[in-house]
Amino acid sequence: MLTLTRPEGTQPGDLNLSRRSLGGLMFFGYAAAALSAEASPIVTPEEGLVCGPIDFTGWAPEGAYPPSLPAYVARPQGSGPFPVVIVVNEIFGLHAYIQDVCRRLARQGYAAMAPGYFARSGDPSRLTEFEPILAMVRAARHPQVMGDTAAALDWLRAQPWADADRAGITGFCWGGTVVWMAVADLPFRCGAAWYGRLVGGENAEPDRDYPADAAGRLRGPVLGLYAENDRGIPLESVETMRAALSAAGKADSEIIVYPGAQHGFHADYRATYDRAAAEDAWSRMLALFERELKAG
Question: Does the pLDDT value for residue 36 go beyond 90?
């Protein structure tokens, strides 16, 4: 059974198998999990929606030519304008599960866009070994990620069916950390962060803030959705984040920890999927978006 246990990806030792027995970690990653016997991915139909891939202009350092990046967009049929939600992927990139999350949000009345943050390096969802996947993730540095998120909002702002003044963001694993930082530094009304890293420390990207550092900058409420048995995000870091929110007076943000759940509990293509936790967390997220993006 393949179990993905860490926000930066499973390490060989987590599988209790040798590198040799894994054939050099062959079939590691999204593809293996999605095709495993334990997987039962949810597939949201496209009927009644307008959805598919698009290209948008991403961020580039000053003086550099901005790249064209892929994204997946799903929205209800009709003229809108609909409130928008940016969906931030896990380490495996813009794969079917992330696209399905966009369609689920579109069925709730949102224009959802999932940018291809790793496209400059390739497509990690197609890779079968851990190290190349991790290299792609590490290549997406914090300034680029925030810049691409802002560029995605700019693209949505130019669409007549989107109301980017009513913008939320959600993300999973690697993307959960992005959510906290985006609500701190970009014009989002709210966010839902699923089991994303909260503090720096070992293997952290240098010379940048992490969510616990940025709690005082949050522009709106963030709902943190975490797992009791997450080997990559210890409960101590959750308490550090709670303390940072309290010290900053951010009473409108909260963190929910699901007893017995593991990292990736919402990812229905993984063996760690926990239906009860996933459904409860999803309903909490929808309630937040309804209140902050649709009400008033």
Answer: no
